[in-house]
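Data deposition worksheet. Section B asks for the primary sequence of the deposited chain exactly as it was used as input, without tags or linkers unless they were present during the calculation. Section C holds the resulting structure in token form. Section D is free text for depositor observations; keep each observation to a single sentence. Incomplete worksheets are returned to the depositor.
Section A, Depositor: J.P.
Section B:
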Amino acid sequence: MPGITPDIEALSLADLKTLVFRLLEETASLKAENAALREEIARLKGLKGRPTLRPSGMDAATEPKPAGDRPHKRRRRGAKRPTVTEERVIAVAVPAGSRFKGYETTVVQDLEVRSLVVRYRRQCWRTPAGERIVAPLPAGVRGHVGAELRRYVLVLYHQGQMTVPGLLAHLDDLGVDLSKRQLVRLLDDGQDAFVEEARDVLRAGLKTARWISVDDTGARHRGKNGTCTQIGNDDFACFATTRSKSRLNFLELLQAGRGAYVVNDAAISYMGRHNLPGSVIAPLQAAGAKRFAGRDAWTAHLEALGIAALKVHPDPVKIATEAALWGGLVDHGLLSDTVILSDDAGQFNVGRHALCWVHAERLIHKLDTFTDAQRRAVERIRARVWWLYRDLKAYRQQPTARRRAELKRRFDALFTTRTGFATLDRLLARLHANRGELLVVLDRPEIPLHTNGSENDIRCQVTRRKISAGTRSDAGRDCRDAFLSLMKTCRKLGLSFWSYLGDRLCIPDAPPILPLPDLVQARSAQG
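Section C:
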């Protein structure tokens, strides 16, 4: 009962721990309430209150502070030490009788960007048999454009985020004589090898990844609104622009171009979980054909079974198609034990699913409050969420069975709290219903607690959308997605995108770069 001091000596070790955690929670709540009261007093006095913390600051604010009594000072970054590629000796006129005292070294970084027009005079021969032989052009030359110019254009457009008009003006200033049509062809034509490598990166990532995080943002193609979806983790990133953002579209993207529809145990289980009637599942199980290559073959199969003509809820064609795509993923060994981490968008809820804690906390932060009591209730809950989140981060570093059980108990205690603020209580109950997805980290400590990586990755697509609207051709869309994927993957693998393009475009003296899918697989195996 309140006001009665418990007999400490009579409590067991487990009861003592429970009491300590309860007291710590109450202390955190009282601190939050005290801060809210101080802010309200300052507001009534006309003083400037404390600044409101942005919801995305939860992850940074819960990082452990550096040890020591003195405040941590950021160490100034010194100048980088570049690798010397050339050495020049500078002489100076001196009076007669001066003694040489060595050299004073100064390292200077510079850049040489200039237009180069080469006329190749290729030998032509006629053999005794009448065959004409012409000396081949150097590797990397395609048409009337050299490999270095192609690399320069690709880097400025995709990594430098330049627009076509801006890039065209820049090249013109350098003395490069290209029309707008020629420049667009440099960006879009003949890039099939890059598109295929980006697709192989996705396949390699899905096959070996312990987890992936996903996100999407708006994208325009052929003058119509669409969606660009990001899929990736710490080892790779992939982008794909489509018209839809449905779960069916997401499962098709996870196929990575295979388009395999398979009715297996995984597909049947998917149908059952999504409430497809047994009268629809039975003919799919009984049918002789189980594998279908492509959407047309699968659609014809559904029509032959009479499923396509059914007009019931849930839509049997939609659920059965999603299930067959999921069965195709399992059949190819993709996402076998992979956790999909998302911001709770419904289309990403497939397989083993985890939720982002930052987005969950943001729901609480964005609640509209109208009274002081409601504001204090929200602040108390947020303080407890931040405390729990900090301890989940610590658990990821040192997971134990005892801490896992305690964190589950604290989660239940937090999200079953009744504050008297009806809207907040309903939200807490909703978040408690997502207990399994929010606490996946307790069983899989390697999984992040947030989708910050996906949001950082997809920012380049947001920037591209702002500066150059959208794409006009399918080739332009595929190239934009492929090069963004390859550029982000290179950065995560610690590779230079400039060097990568140099190797793929056969530029002389460019350092060799192994296929990115092989590097992704090797890195996943090490992790």
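Section D:
The chain has a mean pLDDT of 89.
The first strand starts at residue 124 and ends at 126.
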